[in-house]
Amino acid sequence: MNISDVAKKTGLTSKAIRFYEEKGLLTAPARGENGYRNYTAKHLEELTLLRQARQVGFNLEECREMLLLFHNPQRHSAEVKARTLHKVAEIEAHISELNLMRERLLALAASCPGDDSADCPIINNLAGCCHSVKAR
After folding, report:
1. What is the pLDDT of residue 130?
2. Which of 5, 55, 70, 126 is 20 to 30 Å apart from 41, CA to CA?
3. CA dihedral sign of residues 41, 45, 51, 54
4. How far apart, in whole angstroms, are the C-alpha atoms of residue 82 and residue 51?
5. Mean of the pLDDT values across residues 87-107?
6. Closest residue by Cα to residue 10 from 49, 37, 55
7. What is each CA distance from 77 to 36, 47, 49, 69, in whole angstroms?
């Protein structure tokens, strides 16, 4: 199978496939006499795992670890589950941080009259000061 076939079947771009190969995440495909990569079903599985792992938030190093587990017939599902739940906890913490940022921004916006004056409570707050800018 050539790279364009693999790209269609996995939903990845050829560039992404080459990137994963360059990073050592993908098992190196055999090359034909013409130098073209020859992909197998194993590559499709690896690339599908990579695409889907990235979609749910795993970073490249975590994807590397998941691929190692994928290839390890002695793996324990408990380890895969633990990694997944750890990622969920990271995402939940990030959501909490984003909600705090959202609330702060809404409070800042509520403090601002949003008129034509140069005095802006949002800028003052972000700058850590409380003086107002006076027109000269």
Report:
1. 65
2. 55
3. negative
4. 20
5. 97
6. 49
7. 36, 20, 16, 9
The residue with tokens 């949002």 is 122
Cα separation, 136 vs 128, in Å, equals 23
Tell me, what DSSP letter sits at residue 28? P
Give, as one character, the DSSP assignment of residue 116: S
Task: Say which residues have a Cβ less than 8 Å from residue 109's Cβ, sequence separation at least 6.
Answer: 122
Rounded CA-CA distance 97/5 in Å is 41
Cα distance from N-terminal residue to C-terminal residue, the chain: 71
The model's pTM is 0.79
Q: Are 62 and 53 in contact (CB under 8 A)?
A: yes
Answer yes or no: is pLDDT of 122 > 50: yes
